[in-house]
Amino acid sequence: MTERLAIPNLGNYTVALAAMVIGMGAEPWWSTYTNDHAMALGIAAAPESLCLPFKAHLGHFIEADDAGVENALMVNSIGTCRLNYYRGMIEEILKDMGRKIRVFGLGFDGFKPPVFRYFDPPLIPLLRAVSTGVEKIRTIDTIELQTAYTRAREVNTGETSLLMERCLQELSEINSKKTVRLFHKDVRKRFEAIAIDKSREPLRIGLIGEVSLLRDRQLNQNLEQILGHMGVEIKNFFLLGGEIGNNFGISMGYKKNTAKQLATVAKPYLESEVGGHARDSVAHTINCAQAGFDAMVHVCPTGCMPEVSIRPILRRVSEDMDIPVLLLSFDEHTSALGVVTRVEAFLDILWSRRQRGVGLVNRPRRT
Amino acid sequence: MKIGIPRAFYYHSYPRLWECFFRRLGHEPVVSSRSTHKTLEIAAAQTETENCLPQKLFDGHVLSLIDSVDAIFVPRILSIVNGHNCCPRFGALLDATRAGIARGVPLISIEINETAAPLSKTLLKLARTLEADRRTANLAVQEAFAAMEQHHRDEAQLQQAQCDNRKFLLLGHPYTLHDHFIAEPIVNKLKKLQVPLELMTFGDNDITPGDILWCVFNKMYRKLQSLDMHVYAGVIQISTFNCGADSMMTERFRRMCKHNGVPYMLLMVDEHTGKAGVDTRLEAFVDSLAWQRADMAI
After folding, report:
1. What is the span of the domain harbouring residue B189?
2. Are B268 and B134 within one domain?
3. pTM of the model
């Protein structure tokens, strides 16, 4: 029997990561979001003041161990953020709890990370699975973009979310690059079949901040859907395809957002890299202000080291460039209702700004 | 020129260096007064709600300096010890201060990145931007370093002098251990309890690199690694509320101390910490260790 490998939740992109795990000769154990049960387990076991993604990871792995999964995989980073030490800490906590699950790190682990040494996958199937995975990432990027566009304009509320789920379900079941490519071509047509109200001019809001919070809908209280159903077209700035292009220099068709370009954009406000996606958050806010977005929403876990320390800068950009920024922090006590209330109030302000024609004076409207 | 130096973060990481350096260059350094609850009150209205306590204190110090000086010295700190890095907050410190609390105030700044260039070179560069000639700059750098090293030596001697065998080790960042608001009540209480105390020192930059990249924590880690349970009665760690690095490392240190058989206590300090709460916890910790010792003697 093949051993199983639990991978952390990266929202819809987990579908693509799971495909890559299959190529390593392991059976993936995954979900597109951390469920309530896993969250509760993680919160109970983690040190209190660690951030929400840590608790989500830990809970997810405990749940995996309960299900008899032997291995887990998470990212290793070498940045200034405490993510650097998460793998080691999770490993120790799991050991203290008497759990058997092994936690591998992937990222800055040398030429051949331990996880490859352990599973020792044959090269050609692995490469094939990776290329299928990359194709799936591209497809999910398209699904994400289409969902954001359609959800804000749909006539029957909820249709788009259902279609998105269905697409992801189907995507997770196909396993060859060719079929994924065919499916990719089909995605756009499926979304176009949804009845939309073309006369609507939804608010356009950019989502920036910390990765897990942007992608895991359990952690962000389903923020994307809340906004979408209130008639907001969101642009989530964590598209994995673009991210891979950034970090490894592989072109994925998102030439505009390379780390270098974003650094240049952010330079007047922030000259050094802070860690995490902090500099990108600043750069995206500047870009969006120039592109005529109505507002930005910055999400991060409470006490996030890099993202919180750049919040004064976001406030300044917001003032200078006249783009409202809503700062949302999430911890295990955040309730969906609280988020809805804050978002509603924020949107009221945005609609009234639009009615009064404020904030669009020097900015081009999208045609 | 009157140059303001906030008595926070880098003031404590580089003791005496900045005052001496700016004075030698012919400027007048103005160090903000010791932090009190008032400092926090000044900061409260303008600082970021989710900032950690030391950052709030820093903001308070900057705000208290603004009206009385010509410029404020705020560096961008990427690395204090070669091969190590700092909390991300330090990297964003300059830009966040410029965008936030010190808006429109002239700032004197440099980028301290020990991994890329030694501090002496960075200081020479700073001296040049302050229009000092080469000779004065060199002298200023030398004297500033001498002053800092002297301070480290004095501190080390002071800690060595307490060679009592059952002493307590007080852990924390340089900027929490020497802060009047954060550590002073704790140190005073321990003195009152007549407990021999050693404060963690950070003068020695010659540390073995390990998996902990934050230099301050690597120093503490190395210290705890070689901790002799016969010399140290216990470890008290001061942590500040919402400090991200602390939340990670205190857990690790607690495990280490448990493993080494040294009692460990974590004291969390926040804006609302009452004196009575700290006193009670310290008394309880010291008493329980004394009883344990008495039990062992029988």
Report:
1. 162-297
2. no
3. 0.91
Q: H or E element: which one contains B266? A: strand B264-269
**Domains, chain A, ranges and CATH?**
4-120 (3.40.50), 126-151+153-199 (no CATH), 202-367 (3.40.50.11900)
Query: pLDDT tens for residues A264-300?
Result: 899 999 998 888 889 989 999 999 998 889 999 999 9
Q: Is the dihedral of CA A72, A77, A80, A85 positive or negative?
A: positive
Q: How many domains does chain B have?
A: 2
Cβ distance B48 to A312 less than 8 Å, yes or no, reads: yes
- DSSP-assigned states of every residue in B151-206: HHHHHHHHHHH---SSEEEEE--HHHHT-TTTTHHHHHHHHHTT--EEE-------
Q: What is the ipTM of this complex?
A: 0.91
d(CA B58, CA B60): 5
A110 touches chain B (CB under 8 A): no
Q: Would the CB atoms of A305 and B51 count as touching at under 8 Å?
A: no
- Measured between CB atoms, does A95 come within 8 Å of chain B? no
What residue in A sits closest to B251 (Cα-Cα)?
A47
Residues 6+ apart with CB under 8 A from A124: none
Specify whether the CB–CB gap between B8 and B35 falls below 8 A: yes
Nearest Cα neighbor of B87 from B245, B238, B239, B203 is B245
DSSP string, B203-223: --------S--BHHHHHHHHH
Amino acid in the structure at residue B218 = N
Closest chain A CA to residue B256: A92
- In this complex, the residue of B76, B92, B99 whose CB is nearest that of residue A316 is B99
